Amino acid sequence: MSKTLRRAVALLSSLLLASAVSAQTYPSKAVTLLVPYPAGGISDVIARTVNNTLSKQLGQPVIVDNLGGASGSIAAQKVLNAPADGQIIFQGSPNELILAPLAISAVKFKSEDFRLVQMIATAQIGFLARKDLPVRTVDEFLEYARKEAALGRPITYASVGPGSFYHLLGEHLSKITNIPMIHVPYKGAAPANQDLLGGQVDIFLAPFGKAYDELQKQGKLKVLAMLNSERLDSVKDYPAITESKSLKNFTFNIWTGYFVKKDTPEPIVQVIHKAITDALNDPAVHAGLEANSQLVAKPLSLQAVGKAYADGTAQFRAIAKSINLQPQ
Predict the structure, then answer these.
(1) Residue 184 and which of 55, 78, 154, 287 are 20 to 30 A apart at CA?
(2) In terms of domains, do 134 and 242 share one?
(3) How far apart are CA 293 and CA 93, in angstroms?
(4) Is the domain of 238 the same as that of 270?
(5) Measured between alpha carbons, how far is 150 from 184 in angstroms, rounded to an integer?
(6) Are residues 67 and 154 in the same domain?
(7) Mean pLDDT, consecutive 10-residue segments, the chain of 328 residues?
């Protein structure tokens, strides 16, 4: 064996040993679960439903950290600026990691800079309206929006930031109905909800949670429909969008997953994957997610979850292209 080859083998052996040791000691301190939106929204609820059980699985505290702004890309960049050691787990979705790089010119990272470790849940999307909007159904809303636009008063729709999934939904709705609408971006669902309840914005196509059901019952907002293909038991009081006359094909949902920086050592990724998978099988986590109208994800192998992320990236990039989304 040549001297150069012996050095290469020694280097490889030392790297493999270092990875094995890091996995045996990981985590040696508290882990951060980074949520890319302010406290109070559905993303925050998901994190606080999972973090305590995840903490038990990892044997260290899992601390929820909320950092909103720029459609979630500020928090995403924080992950990339940190070491690839698994100490920051990012709670992400297509919003922050697929769409934000396409919509915000200042965002320099790519979807491929992150590795999806496990899916957590799929959110149903609610068609929410301010309480005093003079409509009761989606079809009535479209008629009202068309009349208002003709009078030079286009309706407004909220999103959690430029290029977010909810921005794309609003743009897509405007495009397929040929009704002008005005986009009002926020730093997260919580401030968007505040303005919806205050009547400052007309509609919000948003990930549906238990809080919206309570607000509807209290008369503080209207749930015109769910963007589902059929009525589901968890939201049976609200019509599926397919029950409308004009938007039968306007069915959408969005998933949430837990990510790490792509170069995180494989043994650490495996530890995190097992901990999340075990947490998803916990009855309390199941109940908490389902209580907030989240469809709990079926745990996937690391290989399968990698394929799901690649497929999702291609799907959402295609949606962005269909509405000619341009970075700003």
Answers:
(1) 78
(2) yes
(3) 17
(4) no
(5) 20
(6) no
(7) 55 49 81 94 93 97 95 94 98 92 92 97 95 98 98 97 89 95 92 97 94 95 96 92 96 94 97 97 94 90 96 89 84
